Amino acid sequence: MEEIIRIQQLYKSFGTLEVLKGIDLSVNKGEILTIIGPSGSGKSTLLRCMNHLEKADRGSISIDGQYIGKAEGKDGKTVYRSNKEILTICRRLGMVFQNFNLFPHKSVIENLIEAPVKVKKMEKEEALLIARELLKKVGLLDKEKAYPNQLSGGQKQRVAIARALAMQPEIMLFDEPTSALDPELIGEVLQVIKQLAEEHMTMVIVTHEMNFARDISDRVIFMEKGEIVTQGSPEEILINPRLPRLQTFLNKVV
Amino acid sequence: MEHLNYIMEITPYILEGAVFSIQIYVVTMLFAIPLGMLCALGKLVHFKPLRWLLEAYTWVFRGTPLLLQLFFVYYGLPFVPVIGVEFSREMAAFVTFILNYGAYFTEIFRAGIQSIDKGQYEAAKALGMSYPRTMCSIIIPQAIKVIVPPLGNEAVTLIKDTALCSVIAIPEMLKNAKAVVARDAAVSGYIIAAVAYLAMTFVIINIFKYIEKRLSYYDK
Ligand SMILES: Nc1ncnc2c1ncn2[C@@H]1O[C@H](COP(=O)(O)OP(=O)(O)OP(=O)(O)O)[C@@H](O)[C@H]1O
Ligand SMILES: [Mg+2]
To answer: pTM value?
Structure first.
């Protein structure tokens, strides 16, 4: 198993609130990892530390052996690479947000080609080709000229997934991709993620959709109060949970 | 008939003044917009001294009357030790107007930029975009839509503010109209000037309406 994300002794506080308390975690290539846990347990923060949307205070993060931030000295304070280098390393990760965060002033196709053309300096023709391929994959080829506000929530999220994929990332991070959606639109988004799973995309998914987590995950992590409480296969964590805290949490969600 | 002749006689003189009014209008817009944009971006930078400097700038120029600023730059500045510079009347007006309107535009642009959702920055960063690239391609284009209506208001106010230049004896439209009124003891001069101001306002309002319409191709 080849390790692609490695996190060691990660600590993060917002003011006096300690949100991550010494997280150790590694993700293997092709692995599908889901993170579950109560609200405020630090799931999003952990995910956002992986692509540097949040800066951890202490500990190390590395992507495929290249560190973004490295713990140094005896207090383990994180020392970061230059922003430019981090941006380059983090291009290997794509991210999908709960609120889509599509660019409202750009059409669907422009949303998809923006980063490949401007960041990767890809030829526009090539970017368009890839973008259309991806739109086909998420079932929205007919929407390429639409603006985000003309789409349903489910469609927006599928565009957001396609936009992230347009940068050809090796890892996809999902932060509650279906939490902002009406129940009848959740299925179409999960379907797209399942398709990625079949292609062995490495994925880290924060979700409250327990059935989905059970079906798709190789490994499930249960977080509470900034710590990884337990982890294991979907059977161990979701079907036959042993830990009382985990049982309580699962009973509340379902 | 005689009255019409009179009007035909004084109009060219009054409109001569409009040349300067339009000149200072265009110069102010041309320089104050980029100045405001740069200062707005400067206010968002984490470097504190720069932010304080810009806060002081906008505070002073928005917190004192434009009229006072005009007096100060033209009459007062030559007497200030060290930086004492003497501008021509026109130059003094240009400098004052650019700095004054730049301060208002700074605040309008800053508010516009800050109204853009944090998620937009995050999405851009997650796609590998640098901060300057994010500002240019994602944030500022969206902010413009927010900025245009208040900018249009200022643009209309500026037309009327150009009349203030008469106080430092620049022969702009109001000053010429006043001269005619004083000479002939007839109010027509003012009416002609009013019509000319209204015509300019009409043009500016419609330019901004057009821009707003062009920007309405998307909704948030
Ligand atoms: N930018 C921030 N500033 C201050 N506090 C923050 C910030 N971001 C998150 N927090 C706090 O950190 C804690 C953990 O937040 P986080 O978003 O990681 O939780 P979560 O597990 O994703 O919760 P949820 O399921 O509600 O999304 C919360 O108490 C939250 O209020
Ligand atoms: Mg969260």
So the answer is: 0.92
Across the range A155-167, mean pLDDT stands at: 98
Tens digit of pLDDT for each residue in B37-76?
A: 999 999 999 899 999 999 999 999 999 999 999 999 999 9
Distant-in-sequence, close-in-space partners of A93: CB < 8 Å, separation ≥ 6: A50, A51, A63, A169, A170, A171, A172, A173, B126
Topology annotation, domain B2-219: MetI-like fold (1.10.3720)
Taking the C-alpha atoms of residue B39 and residue B59, their distance in angstroms, rounded to an integer, is 13
Q: Which residues of A touch chain B, with CB atoms under 8 Å apart?
A: 51-53, 83-84, 87-88, 90-91, 93-95, 97, 99, 101-105, 114-115, 118-120, 147-149, 163-164, 167
The residues, ordered by sequence, that sit 6+ positions from A201 with a Cβ below 8 Å of its Cβ are A30, A171, A172
Task: Give the start-to-end residue ranges of the domains of chain A.
Answer: 99-169
Q: Where are the domains of chain B?
A: 2-219
Which ipTM score applies to this complex?
Answer: 0.95
Model confidence at B1, pLDDT cuts 50, 70, 90, reads low
**Residue with CA closest to ligand 1 atom 27:** A39
**Chain A residues touching residue B137 (CB < 8 angstroms):** 114, 118
